[in-house]
Every structure is written in C-alpha cells, then in structure tokens.
Design goal:
alpha+beta; four-stranded mixed beta sheet; 4 strands; 12% strand
Length: 120
C-alpha cells in the first residue's frame, strides 16, 4: 500500500502502542473514512519515508524514535545524516514515530492523539 495521493486518510498504526490505539479509536468515533497501515508488517520504503517527511514538514529526526534500541544498533546518533536515518527507518520500521495520520498532501504525528483531528 502506498501513501495516499489525494484527500484520502491513512493511519500509520502500531496496535501495540497505546497512543496509536487512541488515535484509531478517535478516528472511528468521529466516523472518519481512513485506511490503516500496519507499518511494522508493511514498512514504508525510503522513498515513501521521504514523501512522508515532506508532508509532515518536519526534519526526519523529529519523527524518529531515538530511544529505541534499533536507533543505536543502526549506528545513529544525535548528529546523524537525515539520509542515514531514512535508510535505518526503512530497514527498522520500529524507528518510525507513531501514530501518524497521512492525507494527500499533509501528515501529522498523533502525539498527543488528539492532534490528528487537525487533518479531519
């Protein structure tokens, strides 16, 4: 599944994450029409991650889970090159912050989950 290209919504979701479950429930409560992408099972490619960064309007380091063991295992640090972070995130999708709601041209990190309402 590719990222949405129009005004469709896709929730990048990890069902084991309480914030991600809260965002999913919020979308369902509001009757939003959206797709769910279990990004740990269906990882984003490096190209998709680059597009996601454009839609988020934030540097990749701001939507990377730096406290995950996989961050250090990938040889990443505070001063890592954004391209190296994208490579690592494509190989280790656990590094992707969650949840993220993606629309055709925009995306938002749902931390707190209520932030995703901005895209509805």
């Amino acid at each position: 599944m590719a990222l949405p290209t129009r005004d469709e919504l896709t929730l990048l979701h990890n069902p084991r994450c309480s914030k991600s479950r809260a965002a999913l429930a919020l979308l369902e409560e509001r009757g939003a029409r959206f797709e769910t992408r279990l990004y740990l099972e269906d990882p984003l490619s490096k190209d998709e991650l680059a597009v996601l960064g454009e839609r988020l309007g934030r540097p990749v380091g701001e939507w990377t889970r730096k406290n995950e063991a996989a961050f250090a295992e990938a040889g990443l640090g505070a001063d890592s090159d954004p391209d190296a972070i994208l490579d690592a995130m494509a190989d280790r999708p656990i590094l992707l912050e969650r949840p993220i709601l993606v629309s055709g041209t925009r995306a938002i990190v749902g931390r707190p989950p209520d932030d995703i309402v901005e895209l509805l």
